[in-house]
Amino acid sequence: MRFLVFAEHHEDGFVKNSLGVLSKAAALGDVDAVVVGAGADLAARLGKHGAKNVHVASGDDSLTPPLPQPRVDVLAQLAPEYDAVLFGQSVLAADVAAGLAARLDAGLNWDLVDLELRPAQDGAAELVGKRPALQDSVYVDVGWTSSPRIALFRSGSFDPQESGGEAETREVEVELRDFSTRTTMVEQAHAEAEGKSIEDADVIVAGGRGLGSPDNFTLAEELAKALGGAVGATRAVVDAGWYPYSAQIGQTGKTVSPKLYVALGISGAIQHKVGMQSSGTIVAINKDANAPIFEFSDLGVVGDVHEIVPKLTELVRARKG
Prior knowledge:
alpha/beta, Rossmann fold
């Protein structure tokens, strides 16, 4: 079975989630990748993660900004040659995957956490995805009735594995639709440049309205720095202008699965839960003993974050020192 993986990149590095999906696909069959808006030198790095061929689309200025529609155009040219097109979860990847499914009238399964090949009745291999259901209490098998099969995987589903291989790069002859060039990017925020991306971080310290004010987000920032992690936020905080959208975790933000997730002053609404419930260990600090977040936390501390977090930060620094 032949796979095509959308390798998302930012500046001179690939998104960790994309590399994980690429490694998984390489373990299942022949896999190629597609890189949009970057040069062949960067694309060639994907060989060590299992890509045999990398399609490079960089011949048009419209491909440089991280806009979804031009990427749909590129993938629509390549996808019919493959059995499945795979994406790692991100805001951009979700837009591109949905647009590609609509363009090709193809089936899209999203929020997957695994993928496997099973023998079919006709002797051929059948592609089966696994998706969490009932608040992650069970996993269900999902399939596709048309080709190419399009799949979007939850962040952290697969760890990148290096195979040490080499990839051949191939330049794509880009044919953009008229409507794909009508959108221009006026400004691109780089709020995450000073710290780690929440999508790649092993440790996330997230803050909610319980912190009281935007100034109090220094509590989350200092603890995250001590733990070597990144800072996240809830939708309510982002909507209030306390923290940038790039840090929003939840149904309308980013889905994360760090090894450690520390929630400060977060009540635990379902919209936030779906974005972080697959974290390895969840620690919640909240003064409300009845906060819903305690129902799915591994460790809960009932108390004032303004008193507890500074002491916790000092303890972490002392232990690391």
